[in-house]
User: Fold this.
Amino acid sequence: MIFIITIKRNLYSQFYNFPMIVYLFDLVYVLTQKEIKVRYKNSVFGYFWSVMHPLAFALMFYLAFKVFMKVRLEDYPLFLITGLFPWQWFSNSVSSSLFVLMDNASLIKKLNFPRELIPLSSVINHSLHFLLSLPVILLFMYFYDKSPSLWFVLYLICLFLPQFMINYGVSLVVSSLHLFFRDLDRLVSILLTLLFYLTPVIYSEDMIPHNYRYILYLNPISGLLINWRRLFLDEPLDIHFMLLSYFYAFVIFLSGYALFKKLSWKFAEVL
Assistant:
C-alpha cells in the first residue's frame, strides 16, 4: 500500500508540474527501486549471490570439460566467465519477466500508466547487476594477463545496447503471454536450456562443424556472446555479428512491443 501511495504521489506531482518524459523516468526509477528491494529483501549476501552463480557454473564446466574431457581451449576459466556473465544477464531478464506483471497486479488494476514500464524496470534491474559484475571479469582478465583496449568503453556500449533491446523485447513477449498461458514458465525454462547449449557459451564457435555454422546466424544471442568474449579477451570484434545483433535487436524489440501493446488492454481482466 505504501508503494502504491508513493507511485500516486510521484505520478500526480510529475504529471502536472513537469514534462511527461520526467514523469516516465521517475516512474521507472521507483519501479526499478522496488525490484531491487524485493530481490535483496532478507538476503544476507545480496549482490554476491548474483556473482557467485555464474562463478559456480564456471567451476563446474571447468572440471567437466577442461579437467575431465581435456578440451583444448586456452585460459578456459576466463573463457567461461566471459560467456556466462552475459548469458546470465539474458537468462535472468527473461525468467524474471514471466511473473513481473503478476507481482504488480495491484498497480495495473488501480493506476493508469504505461504497462511496458514494469518489464522495463525488471530488465534495468538485471542490467545493473551485469554492469556491477564487470569488475569480476576485469579481475579475471588481469589474472590471465589480459588488458582492456583503449576502445573498451565504446565497444562495451555498442554491445550493451543490442543486448538490452533483445532482453527487453523478449521480456515484453513472455510477460504478456504468461498472463494468458500460465504454464508458459515451464516452456520458457526448457527453451532457455536448449538455447544455452546452442549458444557458444561453454565452447568456442570454432568447434562447431561447418555444416552447422548456420545455427550461429539463426541464434540472436550467439553473435552477442561471441563479441562479448572477443571484447574481454582483447580480440577484434566481428563486425558481421555486430550488425546481425543490431538487426535482431530491432526486430525482437519492435515485435515484442507491438505484441505487448496489443494485449495490454486485457491485463486488468486476467490478473
About this structure: Residues 1-18 have pLDDT under 50 and may be disordered. The CA atoms of residues 56 and 264 lie 39 Å apart. The chain has 13 helices and no strands.
